[in-house]
Q: What sequence folds into this?
């Protein structure tokens, strides 16, 4: 091993601890720690969903929303719709692949003054239809789970952007006075 290579490896090893403590958290991160400041202040209210998707949605939301509903600053109500569309069809008209679409209309209400923010989010997951019925059912369930997690991510991002936009408008209006 050359001395240059040894010095390079040593420099990288010594600089690694400095990089881990920078505190960088991207806006669109899906990690709970990056989004916690927004959804930790949200209490999940009513979730209107088909019984096939409700458990997955509740799991996805409960991992991100406020544990103590009394301390929450916002209430969130969600209405969802799900559709499975045949994507690939054989000559005999049997479907071999489906797109599973999940759409949600949400209303975020600030508890302090009742101001509401409304939005829509959408997610898409696909699954294959195979000869084994069990495998197909498992794939469909996995697509629902993935679509639920993605939908909650999209709702989080939408809320984050809408709250930031509302704060900017408020700051602009205050600066004009």
A:
């Amino acid at each position: 091993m050359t001395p240059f290579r040894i010095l390079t490896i040593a420099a990288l090893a010594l600089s690694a601890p400095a990089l881990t403590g920078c505190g960088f958290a991207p806006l669109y991160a899906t990690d709970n720690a990056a989004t916690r400041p927004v959804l930790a202040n949200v209490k999940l209210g009513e979730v209107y969903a088909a019984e096939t998707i409700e458990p997955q949605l509740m799991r996805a939301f409960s991992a991100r929303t406020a544990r103590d509903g009394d301390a929450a600053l916002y209430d969130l109500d969600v209405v969802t719709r799900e559709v499975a569309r045949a994507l690939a069809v054989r000559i005999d008209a049997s479907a071999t692949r489906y797109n599973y679409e999940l759409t949600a209309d949400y209303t975020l209400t600030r508890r302090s003054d009742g101001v509401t923010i409304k939005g829509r989010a959408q997610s898409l997951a696909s699954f294959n239809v195979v000869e084994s019925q069990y495998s197909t059912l498992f794939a469909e369930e996995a697509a629902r789970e993935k679509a639920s997690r993605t939908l909650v991510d999209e709702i989080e991002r939408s809320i984050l952007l809408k709250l930031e936009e509302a704060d900017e408008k408020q700051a602009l209006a205050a600066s004009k006075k």
